[in-house]
Amino acid sequence: MTINKGVLLALLAVSLLQASPSYAKSVPLTPATTVYVDDRPLQLVAQPLLLDGTTLVPMRQLFEAQGARLSWDESSKTVTATKNDTVLTYRIGELAATLNGNALSLNVPGQIVKGNTMIPLRFVSEALGSTVKWDALTRTIRIVSRNDFFTTVLSRVNLRSEPDSSGTSPSLRLIPAGEKVHIIREVNALWLEVRTKDNLTGYISAKPKYSDYTSPSLAERQGDELIAYGEKFLGTPYEFGAATGQTSTFDCSSFVGEVFRHTLSIDLPRVSYDQAKEGRKVGLNELRKGDLLFFSARGLEIGHVAIYAGNNKLLHTFSKERGVHFDTLDDKWQKRFVTARRLF
Fold first, then answer.
1. What is the pLDDT of residue 120?
2. Is-contact 317 251, C-beta < 8 A?
3. pLDDT tops 60 at residue 299
4. Is 316 a catalytic residue?
5. Can 325 be counted among the known catalytic residues?
6. Are 148 and 169 in contact (CB under 8 A)?
7. Ranges for the SH3b domain (predicted)?
């Protein structure tokens, strides 16, 4: 008997669909998603899965990254995780778990997929006392497992409902100097998401005057912010002794003062000699974006200042012909180099 070629292909397609494992239909792979635990990327042995809006990730890595000890009963497919006084028990495939003897419900069950035991990320993390944040723009999940209050407020600052200092973002309360807060995440160069000891969550300014919080990633963002603002004045005329409080002309130190005051609320002395006493000293081999470099000029030991712009570049002004401009930190400048200072 002769079978039509089209019919044969259709029958083959149906048989392949029926042979597919059930999880492939109910647990589709998500687009690329990055998971961070306390600002460290979680290196997963399997790609996160999405089931009915819930993200599932490999079990062992999720528990251990948050400081939980794990025991696994292979016969019953039951996991017990212990973290300090918290004991979480869960049997894979069920919609209920036990936390310190109390029953908890899950939105979706854990599953074993291609040999990997996958469990709901948010449920497990929050059961262990962590905070989970989802950034839709970058498709990033951030888990904050620590509950420390190590960051000290240096100058009273508003705790805002949104990372915005305009009137559209009301203040939740004023945090006084000396109070300690927990940093949930760095929103950008200018804002931190924090939690207070009275369990309020909101946003405070990331500018150095308001807290003692620092990190390499925040310093990099703030350096970028400084240079981006300084670039707005490229070509602005040079005027020796230019008046402060205006931006139509600059000399080297008034330009640096304007950039730091406007961007990070750092007030600097008027002249470069005094600016060189601020912050802490760093070497040429340590430079990062936003550091200040000081040079001899006009017969003075320190008579010129520039902002390090990264990639061996300077952003400064000293020339009536060029105004504010970029330069290369070449041998000419290195021969006149005196010191470098870091302010944030």
1. 96
2. yes
3. yes
4. yes
5. no
6. no
7. 145-213
Query: Is residue 262 annotated as a catalytic residue, yes or no?
Result: no
Catalytic residue among 182, 262, 304, 325: 304
Q: Which residue intervals of the chain are DSSP H helices?
A: 5-19, 23-26, 59-65, 121-127, 216-231, 252-264, 272-275, 331-336
CATH architecture of 218-342: Alpha-Beta Complex (3.90)
Query: So where are the chain's domains?
Result: 24-130, 151-213, 218-342
Distance CA 258, CA 233 (A): 11
The separation between the first and the last C-alpha atoms of the chain, rounded to the nearest angstrom, is 83
Percentage of residues in the chain having pLDDT higher than 90? 74
CATH hierarchy code of domain 151-213: 2.30.30.40
Query: What class is the 24-130 domain?
Result: alpha beta
Q: Rounded CA gap, 297 and 171, in Å?
A: 47
Buried b (16+ CB within 10 A) or exposed e, 224-263: bbbbeebeebeebbbeeebeeeeeebbbbbbbbbbbbeeb
Q: What is the DSSP string of 58-122?
A: EHHHHHHHTT-EEEEETTTTEEEEEETTEEEEEETT-SEEEETTEEEE-SS--EEETTEEEEEHH
Q: How far is CA 291 from the centre of its chain?
A: 21
3-state secondary structure of 220: helix
Give the Cα separation of 226 and 205 in Å (integer): 16
Q: SS3 for 6? A: helix
Q: What is the pTM of this model?
A: 0.64
Whole-number pLDDT of residue 53:
87
